[in-house]
Automatic annotation (TrEMBL):
Keywords, ordered alphabetically: Signal
Pfam families: PNGaseA
The UniProt record lists the keyword ATP-binding: no
Residues of the signal peptide: 1-37
Top-rank lineage group of the source organism: Bacteria
Keyword presence, Signal: yes
The organism of origin for this protein: Streptacidiphilus alkalitolerans
Protein's recorded name: Peptide-N4-asparagine amidase
Residue ranges annotated for the Peptide N-acetyl-beta-D-glucosaminyl asparaginase amidase A N-terminal domain, each copy included: 61-365
Length: 592
């Protein structure tokens, strides 16, 4: 029996999180040493979850809030999703400058963390996971700007909400959830939100919970017909690993895992999300190393959640170079593949389509594609003294796609290029009971758009080339982990400890001459230590410290700097600091 199986039975991990004890997965200072359960206090509760992330701005315009779901998710693990209908409010008919989704819940008792998702019109608009409760109960809330889905929200759409939960004599927590949408009317100072012309889900169920549950070697495949006057194609992808891939970044080569099957998962540590169009490689996303609220040691995340734990960010891929191949009125197939998967991945996608308002048809072609679906991954295993094995895994991606379209505004050439780097070092010792993981994922995607305009007709026609527009999205996902399972006898006798650190740095920029001008910046860091132990069925240690520092831009472009620290399950300091664009400059400097 795996150590993660022990945690799963105890309910200290999540149902979404079927992890591994070595799934200490996301943070820590490698080599710093783990916390220990010896002499640790017994934490009996913790306050409601709190995060340093900036709130979603709320425009000061007339608005309407509609409760689209209020439901208790009890024993729903094998039940269909909650379904309903989302209808535009008569009192706020639009146009809207913003639409905000609010997700609120309470839970009491004993329960795993759970994966949850919300679909409107077949498009996944929210992916999240739940906190684990206390005996006295907790409540939490998150919010998300869903204005990009306004093309769907203008008309009545089916609603589906999935939250698979287990309730029995042992696991008693019922997730009591409320979902609302608030529609903010546009006015002169707050114009209508700029969105794609059409939102086209690639989900498996156009009216239900449409994510794909994929095993090793499997792909999500969807065939759709697109408008014949496309000018832009964007794809939003959700992807989270489960089981042994819940903390995929501390998985080891299968031969090493076979030596210590109680503690290690195999398959290696490298994963990427691949996208193909009609069988042609079209894009790659490096997945974020997500940790659920029960992951590694549950006391790590009380009350400050791990990065990406409550509001999962999707990955955006620009597929515009393929638009010229997609405007022929024929069905086209989009394929999403979690490359390297050694266990289940939950995957979904949505297309955001721009069309030519001056022409019924556009035409063009894909002119270049250097992307392959076989990354060059290097893995070495080296004995480094005692019973320690050091595993090093590296990979690098450099690729480009390019295509052109003839539109009513002239010829447009789009080029997408990406540079991505992956490095993972894992020191495995004590028969697999201890792991020290240090991982770096970073890179940048650059999109260049060139316009060749035509003026006049016949012999008097002239052509002109506008300066290309160049935008860049850079990311960095640093993670270190130091985790130990010094004792594991059975479900009543064990000891877990971990020190973890993780970050997410995102920088969006536009090219101006020889400079990059940042348009959006995020630097979100979480550091935590935690211990959990039982002896003879009694909890003998349960404690943790937790901190988060967010420095970045808000959705209005303002600088936001907040730091929260917590100990023993309760906030000890919460500071909101003054900052400005100069503060963001250091974070916004592109890397890679």
């Amino acid at each position: 029996m795996r150590a993660w199986g022990l945690r799963h039975r105890l309910g200290v991990l999540g149902g979404a999180a079927v992890l591994l004890a070595t799934a200490l997965g996301t943070l820590g200072t490698a080599g710093a040493g783990t916390a220990t359960a010896a002499d640790a206090p017994v934490e009996t509760g913790y306050q409601n979850p709190v995060t340093a992330l900036p709130p979603v701005s709320r425009p000061p315009t007339p608005h309407c809030t509609v409760t689209v779901m209020r439901n208790d998710f009890g024993n729903t693990i094998s039940s269909p999703p909650y379904t309903g209908t989302v209808t535009p409010p008569e009192s706020c008919p639009g146009p809207w400058t913003k639409v905000v989704l609010d997700w609120s819940g309470t839970v009491q008792g004993r329960q795993y963390d759970r994966l949850a998702g919300v679909w409107i019109g077949g498009a996944e608009v929210l992916r999240t996971s739940t906190p684990e409760p206390t005996a006295d109960g907790i409540s939490w809330h998150l919010e998300k700007d869903v204005s990009s889905y306004i093309p769907l929200l203008r008309t009545a759409q089916p609603l589906a909400v999935s939250l698979g939960n287990v309730v029995n004599s042992t696991y008693t927590g019922v997730y009591r959830m409320t979902l609302t949408l608030t529609y903010y009317q546009a006015d002169r100072q707050h114009p209508a939100a700029r969105t794609a012309d059409q939102v086209l889900p690639l989900s498996s169920d156009p009216a239900g919970a449409g994510w794909y549950s994929l095993g090793p070697g499997q792909s999500a495949v969807k065939t759709v017909t697109l408008p014949r006057n496309l000018t832009g194609v964007q794809l939003e992808v959700y992807a989270r690993g489960g089981g042994c891939d819940e903390q995929w970044f501390d998985s080891v080569p299968s031969d090493l895992a076979a030596r210590y099957p109680d503690y290690l998962c195999g398959g290696g540590a490298y994963r990427e999300v691949q996208v193909s169009v009609d069988g042609r490689p079209a894009g790659i996303a490096q997945p974020y190393p997500v940790v659920y609220s029960g992951g590694i040691v549950p006391t790590l995340w009380r009350p400050i959640p791990a990065v990406d734990q409550f509001v999962t960010q999707a990955y955006d891929l620009d597929l515009t170079p393929f638009a010229g191949e997609l405007v022929d009125g024929k069905p086209h197939t989009f394929t999403l593949t979690p490359y390297g998967a050694a266990d289940t991945w939950t995957v979904d996608g949505t297309l955001f389509l721009d069309t030519d308002h001056g022409a019924a048809r556009t035409h063009g072609a894909l002119s270049g594609d250097t992307l392959t679906l076989s990354p060059a991954v290097s893995t070495t295993e080296t004995p480094v003294g005692g019973d320690t094995t050091e595993v090093r895994t590296t990979a690098q991606r450099d690729w480009q796609t390019s295509g052109w379209l003839q539109t009513s505004h002239g010829r447009v050439v789009s080029t997408v290029s990406q540079h991505a780097v992956y490095r993972n070092t894992d020191a495995v010792s004590s028969g697999g009971q201890r792991q020290r993981v240090a991982q770096q994922e970073y890179g940048a995607t650059t999109v260049t758009t060139s316009h060749d305009t035509a003026r006049g007709t016949g012999r008097g026609a002239t052509r002109g080339a506008a300066r290309p527009s160049v935008v860049r999205h850079a990311w960095s996902y640093p993670v270190t982990v130091d985790s130990d399972v010094p004792l594991y006898t059975d479900g009543d006798n064990y000891s877990l400890s971990a020190t973890v650190s993780q970050g997410r740095v995102l920088v969006d920029s536009v090219r101006s001459g020889n400079r990059w001008l940042p348009t959006a910046v995020t630097d979100d860091r979480v550091d935590a230590t935690g211990v959990l132990a039982r002896t003879g069925g009694l909890t003998t240690a349960a404690d943790g410290t937790d901190s988060e520092h967010y420095l970045g831009s808000t959705d209005t472009g303002d600088c936001y700097d907040r730091s929260i620290t917590a100990a023993h399950g309760y906030v000890t300091a919460d500071r909101l600091l003054r900052c400005d664009r100069h503060t963001l400059a250091a974070v916004a400097t592109p890397s890679g």
